[in-house]
Protein backbone atom coordinates (compact mmCIF):
# COMPACT_ATOMS: atom_id res chain seq x y z
CA UNK A 1 0.00 0.00 0.00
CA UNK A 2 2.78 2.43 0.94
CA UNK A 3 4.46 1.62 -2.32
CA UNK A 4 1.36 2.54 -4.30
CA UNK A 5 1.11 5.86 -2.42
CA UNK A 6 4.75 6.68 -3.15
CA UNK A 7 4.06 6.13 -6.83
CA UNK A 8 0.75 7.99 -6.97
CA UNK A 9 1.82 11.09 -5.00
CA UNK A 10 4.36 12.41 -7.54
CA UNK A 11 1.88 11.70 -10.31
CA UNK A 12 -0.78 13.74 -8.51
CA UNK A 13 1.61 16.66 -8.05
CA UNK A 14 2.55 16.57 -11.73
CA UNK A 15 -1.09 16.41 -12.79
CA UNK A 16 -2.00 19.35 -10.54
CA UNK A 17 0.78 21.43 -12.05
CA UNK A 18 -0.31 20.50 -15.55
CA UNK A 19 -3.91 21.41 -14.78
CA UNK A 20 -3.01 24.87 -13.41
CA UNK A 21 -4.24 27.61 -15.71
CA UNK A 22 -1.14 29.03 -17.47
CA UNK A 23 -2.80 32.46 -17.56
CA UNK A 24 -2.72 32.57 -13.75
CA UNK A 25 1.00 31.93 -13.56
CA UNK A 26 2.82 35.11 -12.54
CA UNK A 27 5.49 36.02 -15.06
CA UNK A 28 7.48 39.21 -15.50
CA UNK A 29 5.86 41.61 -17.97
CA UNK A 30 7.59 44.86 -18.91
CA UNK A 31 4.96 46.06 -21.38
CA UNK A 32 5.17 49.84 -21.36
CA UNK A 33 2.38 52.02 -20.00
CA UNK A 34 1.91 54.95 -22.36
CA UNK A 35 0.91 58.22 -20.72
CA UNK A 36 -1.83 59.96 -22.69
CA UNK A 37 -1.24 63.63 -21.94
CA UNK A 38 -3.09 65.07 -24.93
CA UNK A 39 -2.11 68.68 -25.65
CA UNK A 40 0.09 68.96 -22.56
CA UNK A 41 3.84 69.30 -23.15
CA UNK A 42 5.94 66.21 -22.41
CA UNK A 43 6.46 65.75 -18.65
CA UNK A 44 9.30 67.77 -17.15
CA UNK A 45 10.16 65.16 -14.56
CA UNK A 46 12.65 62.48 -15.47
CA UNK A 47 10.69 59.31 -14.80
CA UNK A 48 13.65 57.14 -13.83
CA UNK A 49 11.51 54.09 -13.45
CA UNK A 50 9.97 53.78 -16.88
CA UNK A 51 6.25 53.18 -16.59
CA UNK A 52 5.01 49.66 -17.20
CA UNK A 53 1.44 48.40 -17.14
CA UNK A 54 2.20 45.89 -14.39
CA UNK A 55 3.92 48.41 -12.10
CA UNK A 56 1.01 50.79 -12.56
CA UNK A 57 -1.39 47.94 -11.72
CA UNK A 58 0.62 47.15 -8.59
CA UNK A 59 0.62 50.82 -7.60
CA UNK A 60 -3.14 50.91 -7.97
CA UNK A 61 -3.49 47.90 -5.67
CA UNK A 62 -1.21 49.51 -3.09
CA UNK A 63 -2.92 52.92 -3.27
CA UNK A 64 -6.18 51.34 -2.11
CA UNK A 65 -4.60 48.80 0.28
CA UNK A 66 -5.46 49.09 4.00
CA UNK A 67 -2.61 46.69 4.84
CA UNK A 68 -0.33 49.72 4.56
CA UNK A 69 -1.76 51.02 7.86
CA UNK A 70 -1.06 49.72 11.34
CA UNK A 71 -4.63 48.62 12.09
CA UNK A 72 -5.91 47.81 8.60
CA UNK A 73 -8.21 50.85 8.55
CA UNK A 74 -6.55 53.23 6.12
CA UNK A 75 -5.16 53.33 2.62
CA UNK A 76 -3.69 56.20 0.64
CA UNK A 77 -7.15 56.67 -0.84
CA UNK A 78 -8.65 57.31 2.60
CA UNK A 79 -7.23 60.84 2.55
CA UNK A 80 -6.92 61.19 -1.23
CA UNK A 81 -10.34 60.51 -2.71
CA UNK A 82 -10.85 60.53 -6.45
CA UNK A 83 -14.13 62.46 -6.41
CA UNK A 84 -12.25 65.34 -4.76
CA UNK A 85 -9.25 65.24 -7.13
CA UNK A 86 -7.51 62.88 -4.71
CA UNK A 87 -7.61 65.10 -1.65
CA UNK A 88 -9.50 65.19 1.64
CA UNK A 89 -12.33 67.65 2.32
CA UNK A 90 -11.57 67.61 6.04
CA UNK A 91 -9.46 70.57 7.17
CA UNK A 92 -6.95 68.10 8.60
CA UNK A 93 -7.00 64.38 7.88
CA UNK A 94 -7.42 61.88 10.72
CA UNK A 95 -4.81 59.14 10.90
CA UNK A 96 -5.19 55.41 11.45
CA UNK A 97 -4.94 55.79 15.23
CA UNK A 98 -7.18 58.86 15.42
CA UNK A 99 -4.42 61.47 15.38
CA UNK A 100 -5.08 64.67 13.44
CA UNK A 101 -2.58 66.06 10.93
CA UNK A 102 -1.34 69.64 10.82
CA UNK A 103 -1.71 70.42 7.13
CA UNK A 104 -4.48 69.95 4.62
CA UNK A 105 -4.10 66.88 2.37
CA UNK A 106 -2.77 67.86 -1.05
CA UNK A 107 -4.56 66.96 -4.27
CA UNK A 108 -2.86 64.46 -6.59
CA UNK A 109 -2.86 64.96 -10.35
CA UNK A 110 -0.42 65.94 -13.11
CA UNK A 111 2.42 64.83 -10.82
CA UNK A 112 4.65 63.93 -13.77
CA UNK A 113 5.13 67.66 -14.42
CA UNK A 114 6.31 68.55 -10.91
CA UNK A 115 10.05 69.02 -10.58
CA UNK A 116 10.48 70.92 -7.32
CA UNK A 117 9.69 68.34 -4.66
CA UNK A 118 6.56 67.09 -2.95
CA UNK A 119 4.54 67.89 0.19
CA UNK A 120 3.68 71.47 1.16
CA UNK A 121 7.28 71.99 2.29
CA UNK A 122 9.00 69.99 -0.48
CA UNK A 123 10.66 67.55 1.90
CA UNK A 124 10.38 64.67 -0.58
CA UNK A 125 12.61 65.24 -3.64
CA UNK A 126 10.78 62.73 -5.85
CA UNK A 127 7.29 61.24 -5.87
CA UNK A 128 8.56 57.78 -4.89
CA UNK A 129 10.18 59.41 -1.84
CA UNK A 130 6.85 60.97 -0.91
CA UNK A 131 4.85 57.79 -1.48
CA UNK A 132 6.13 55.80 1.50
CA UNK A 133 6.40 58.60 4.06
CA UNK A 134 2.70 58.64 5.10
CA UNK A 135 2.91 54.88 5.74
CA UNK A 136 5.62 55.46 8.36
CA UNK A 137 4.27 58.71 9.80
CA UNK A 138 2.84 57.98 13.29
CA UNK A 139 0.18 60.66 12.79
CA UNK A 140 -0.93 59.14 9.49
CA UNK A 141 -0.82 55.39 8.76
CA UNK A 142 1.47 54.65 11.73
CA UNK A 143 3.08 51.55 10.24
CA UNK A 144 6.60 50.26 9.63
CA UNK A 145 7.99 49.06 6.35
CA UNK A 146 9.02 45.62 7.76
CA UNK A 147 5.45 45.09 8.94
CA UNK A 148 4.02 46.14 5.57
CA UNK A 149 6.43 43.79 3.81
CA UNK A 150 5.36 40.93 6.05
CA UNK A 151 1.67 41.54 5.40
CA UNK A 152 2.07 41.85 1.64
CA UNK A 153 4.42 38.84 1.46
CA UNK A 154 1.72 36.68 3.04
CA UNK A 155 -0.73 37.61 0.26
CA UNK A 156 -0.24 35.64 -2.97
CA UNK A 157 -2.01 38.30 -5.03
CA UNK A 158 0.79 40.68 -4.07
CA UNK A 159 3.74 38.32 -4.45
CA UNK A 160 2.41 37.42 -7.90
CA UNK A 161 2.00 41.08 -8.83
CA UNK A 162 5.52 41.94 -7.67
CA UNK A 163 6.75 39.14 -9.95
CA UNK A 164 4.80 40.59 -12.88
CA UNK A 165 6.06 44.09 -12.13
CA UNK A 166 9.66 43.50 -11.05
CA UNK A 167 10.58 39.95 -12.07
CA UNK A 168 10.59 38.36 -8.62
CA UNK A 169 8.52 38.42 -5.44
CA UNK A 170 10.90 40.49 -3.31
CA UNK A 171 8.98 43.30 -1.61
CA UNK A 172 10.96 46.37 -0.54
CA UNK A 173 10.29 49.99 0.38
CA UNK A 174 11.89 51.08 -2.89
CA UNK A 175 9.59 48.87 -4.95
CA UNK A 176 6.50 49.95 -3.02
CA UNK A 177 7.41 53.59 -3.59
CA UNK A 178 8.19 53.00 -7.26
CA UNK A 179 4.85 51.30 -7.90
CA UNK A 180 2.86 53.98 -6.08
CA UNK A 181 4.76 56.65 -7.99
CA UNK A 182 3.95 55.01 -11.30
CA UNK A 183 0.23 54.81 -10.51
CA UNK A 184 0.12 58.45 -9.40
CA UNK A 185 1.96 59.53 -12.55
CA UNK A 186 -1.04 58.27 -14.52
CA UNK A 187 -3.36 60.79 -12.79
CA UNK A 188 -3.59 63.25 -15.65
CA UNK A 189 -6.27 65.94 -15.59
CA UNK A 190 -6.56 67.81 -18.89
CA UNK A 191 -10.20 67.71 -19.96
CA UNK A 192 -11.91 70.55 -18.11
CA UNK A 193 -14.39 72.91 -19.73
CA UNK A 194 -11.51 75.38 -20.06
CA UNK A 195 -9.46 72.80 -21.97
CA UNK A 196 -12.40 72.21 -24.29
CA UNK A 197 -12.73 75.98 -24.68
CA UNK A 198 -9.10 76.19 -25.77
CA UNK A 199 -9.74 73.36 -28.23
CA UNK A 200 -12.75 75.18 -29.66
CA UNK A 201 -15.30 72.60 -28.53
CA UNK A 202 -16.84 74.53 -25.62
CA UNK A 203 -18.05 78.07 -25.07
CA UNK A 204 -17.65 80.03 -21.87
CA UNK A 205 -20.63 81.87 -20.42
CA UNK A 206 -20.36 85.68 -20.28
CA UNK A 207 -19.54 85.45 -16.56
CA UNK A 208 -16.88 82.77 -17.10
CA UNK A 209 -15.32 84.79 -19.91
CA UNK A 210 -15.17 87.93 -17.77
CA UNK A 211 -13.60 85.82 -15.04
CA UNK A 212 -11.06 84.44 -17.51
CA UNK A 213 -9.99 87.92 -18.50
CA UNK A 214 -9.67 88.97 -14.86
CA UNK A 215 -7.66 85.84 -14.06
CA UNK A 216 -5.00 86.58 -16.67
CA UNK A 217 -4.97 90.40 -16.50
CA UNK A 218 -2.26 91.99 -14.36
CA UNK A 219 -2.95 94.17 -11.35
CA UNK A 220 -2.54 97.89 -12.07
CA UNK A 221 -3.21 100.31 -9.24
CA UNK A 222 -2.94 103.32 -11.55
CA UNK A 223 -5.63 102.16 -13.97
CA UNK A 224 -8.34 100.51 -11.84
CA UNK A 225 -10.66 99.99 -14.79
CA UNK A 226 -8.01 97.94 -16.57
CA UNK A 227 -6.60 96.18 -13.51
CA UNK A 228 -7.06 92.43 -13.20
CA UNK A 229 -6.81 89.80 -10.48
CA UNK A 230 -3.30 88.78 -11.61
CA UNK A 231 -3.91 85.12 -10.65
CA UNK A 232 -1.65 83.85 -13.44
CA UNK A 233 1.35 85.37 -11.66
CA UNK A 234 1.39 82.30 -9.40
CA UNK A 235 -1.03 79.98 -11.20
CA UNK A 236 -0.01 80.33 -14.81
CA UNK A 237 0.55 78.05 -17.76
CA UNK A 238 -1.38 74.98 -18.75
CA UNK A 239 -0.85 73.43 -15.31
CA UNK A 240 -2.08 76.51 -13.39
CA UNK A 241 0.90 76.51 -11.01
CA UNK A 242 4.48 77.75 -11.12
CA UNK A 243 6.65 75.10 -9.41
CA UNK A 244 7.62 77.53 -6.65
CA UNK A 245 7.26 77.94 -2.91
CA UNK A 246 5.65 81.22 -1.93
CA UNK A 247 4.25 83.19 0.98
CA UNK A 248 0.79 84.29 -0.10
CA UNK A 249 0.08 86.65 2.76
CA UNK A 250 -1.99 84.49 5.07
CA UNK A 251 -0.39 85.83 8.26
CA UNK A 252 1.78 88.58 9.62
CA UNK A 253 5.26 87.59 10.71
CA UNK A 254 4.25 87.53 14.37
CA UNK A 255 1.55 85.00 13.57
CA UNK A 256 3.61 82.46 11.61
CA UNK A 257 2.44 79.19 13.19
CA UNK A 258 3.81 76.99 10.39
CA UNK A 259 7.16 77.94 8.88
CA UNK A 260 6.64 75.77 5.79
CA UNK A 261 9.60 75.49 3.44
CA UNK A 262 11.94 76.96 6.06
CA UNK A 263 11.67 73.71 8.04
CA UNK A 264 13.49 71.97 5.19
CA UNK A 265 15.94 74.64 4.03
CA UNK A 266 16.62 76.70 7.19
CA UNK A 267 16.70 79.70 4.90
CA UNK A 268 15.05 82.67 6.65
CA UNK A 269 13.63 83.81 3.32
CA UNK A 270 11.64 80.56 3.14
CA UNK A 271 9.66 81.26 6.31
CA UNK A 272 5.91 80.70 5.74
CA UNK A 273 6.44 79.69 2.12
CA UNK A 274 4.50 76.71 0.80
CA UNK A 275 4.30 74.82 -2.47
CA UNK A 276 2.12 76.62 -5.00
CA UNK A 277 -0.65 74.21 -5.93
CA UNK A 278 -2.52 73.85 -9.20
CA UNK A 279 -5.93 75.50 -9.55
CA UNK A 280 -7.19 72.69 -11.75
CA UNK A 281 -10.17 70.99 -10.06
CA UNK A 282 -10.06 73.69 -7.39
CA UNK A 283 -13.86 73.64 -7.11
CA UNK A 284 -13.65 70.05 -5.85
CA UNK A 285 -10.83 70.44 -3.32
CA UNK A 286 -12.05 72.49 -0.36
CA UNK A 287 -10.92 73.56 2.16
CA UNK A 288 -8.15 75.79 0.86
CA UNK A 289 -4.57 76.77 1.79
CA UNK A 290 -2.02 74.61 3.60
CA UNK A 291 -4.04 74.88 6.81
CA UNK A 292 -7.48 74.62 5.22
CA UNK A 293 -8.57 77.93 6.73
CA UNK A 294 -10.89 78.88 3.86
CA UNK A 295 -13.92 76.73 3.11
CA UNK A 296 -15.11 78.40 -0.10
CA UNK A 297 -13.62 79.85 -3.26
CA UNK A 298 -15.35 83.10 -2.43
CA UNK A 299 -13.30 83.33 0.77
CA UNK A 300 -10.12 82.67 -1.19
CA UNK A 301 -10.90 85.41 -3.70
CA UNK A 302 -11.70 87.83 -0.88
CA UNK A 303 -8.35 87.03 0.76
CA UNK A 304 -6.48 88.10 -2.36
CA UNK A 305 -8.84 91.02 -2.98
CA UNK A 306 -8.55 92.60 0.43
CA UNK A 307 -6.89 90.31 2.98
CA UNK A 308 -3.17 90.06 2.25
CA UNK A 309 -1.00 90.29 5.37
CA UNK A 310 2.46 91.80 5.02
CA UNK A 311 5.65 90.09 6.13
CA UNK A 312 9.32 89.94 5.15
CA UNK A 313 8.86 86.86 2.94
CA UNK A 314 5.61 87.93 1.26
CA UNK A 315 5.69 87.56 -2.53
CA UNK A 316 6.57 91.01 -4.01
CA UNK A 317 3.70 90.95 -6.50
CA UNK A 318 1.22 90.35 -3.69
CA UNK A 319 2.89 92.96 -1.52
CA UNK A 320 2.29 95.50 -4.28
CA UNK A 321 -1.48 95.01 -3.94
CA UNK A 322 -1.74 95.67 -0.20
CA UNK A 323 -2.27 99.43 -0.54
CA UNK A 324 -5.43 99.13 -2.62
CA UNK A 325 -6.35 95.44 -2.70
CA UNK A 326 -7.25 94.01 -6.11
CA UNK A 327 -10.15 96.46 -6.41
CA UNK A 328 -12.58 93.73 -7.49
CA UNK A 329 -16.27 94.53 -7.10
CA UNK A 330 -18.94 91.96 -6.22
CA UNK A 331 -19.66 91.04 -9.85
CA UNK A 332 -15.99 90.63 -10.68
CA UNK A 333 -15.46 88.32 -7.71
CA UNK A 334 -18.44 86.26 -8.84
CA UNK A 335 -17.07 86.12 -12.37
CA UNK A 336 -13.64 85.02 -11.16
CA UNK A 337 -15.15 82.14 -9.19
CA UNK A 338 -17.21 81.17 -12.25
CA UNK A 339 -14.02 80.90 -14.29
CA UNK A 340 -12.25 78.86 -11.62
CA UNK A 341 -15.06 76.34 -11.81
CA UNK A 342 -14.37 75.82 -15.53
CA UNK A 343 -11.12 74.13 -14.44
CA UNK A 344 -13.07 71.14 -13.06
CA UNK A 345 -12.33 67.95 -15.00
CA UNK A 346 -15.28 65.59 -14.53
CA UNK A 347 -13.70 62.86 -16.66
CA UNK A 348 -10.68 62.78 -14.34
CA UNK A 349 -12.88 62.65 -11.24
CA UNK A 350 -14.75 59.62 -12.57
CA UNK A 351 -12.10 57.79 -14.61
CA UNK A 352 -12.47 54.09 -13.73
CA UNK A 353 -8.74 53.49 -14.33
CA UNK A 354 -8.00 55.46 -11.15
CA UNK A 355 -10.64 53.81 -8.98
CA UNK A 356 -10.23 50.99 -6.48
CA UNK A 357 -9.39 47.59 -8.02
CA UNK A 358 -11.07 45.84 -5.08
- Spatial shape: globular
Please name the fourth-level CATH homologous superfamily of the largest domain.
Cytochrome c-like domain
Largest sheet: 2 strands, antiparallel
Under CATH, the topology of the largest domain is which? Cytochrome Bc1 Complex, Chain D, domain 2
Q: Enumerate how many helices there are, as a single number.
A: 14
Write out the strand line-up for the largest beta sheet, numbering strands in chain order: 1-2
Which structural class should the secondary elements be placed in?
Answer: mainly alpha
The helicity comes to: 25-40%
**End-to-end Cα distance:** 47 Å
pLDDT averaged residue by residue = 93
Q: Any low-confidence stretches, pLDDT <50, length ≥5?
A: 1-18
User: How many domain regions?
Assistant: 2
The CATH first-level class of the largest domain comes to: Mainly Alpha
CATH architecture designation of the largest domain: Orthogonal Bundle
Strand content: under 5%
CA-based gyration radius = 24 Å
Number of strands: 2
H-E string: HHHHHHHHHEHEHHHH
Amino acid sequence: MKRILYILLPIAVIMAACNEDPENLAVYDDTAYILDYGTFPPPNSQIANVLTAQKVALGRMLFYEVKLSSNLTQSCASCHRQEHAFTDTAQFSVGAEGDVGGRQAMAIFNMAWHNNGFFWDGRAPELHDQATQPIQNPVEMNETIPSVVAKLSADKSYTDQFIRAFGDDEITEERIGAALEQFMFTFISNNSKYDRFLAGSATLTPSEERGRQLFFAEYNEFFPNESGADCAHCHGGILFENDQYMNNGLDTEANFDDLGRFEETNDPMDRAKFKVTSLRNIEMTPPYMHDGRFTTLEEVVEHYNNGIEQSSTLDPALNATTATGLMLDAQEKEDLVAFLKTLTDDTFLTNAEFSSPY
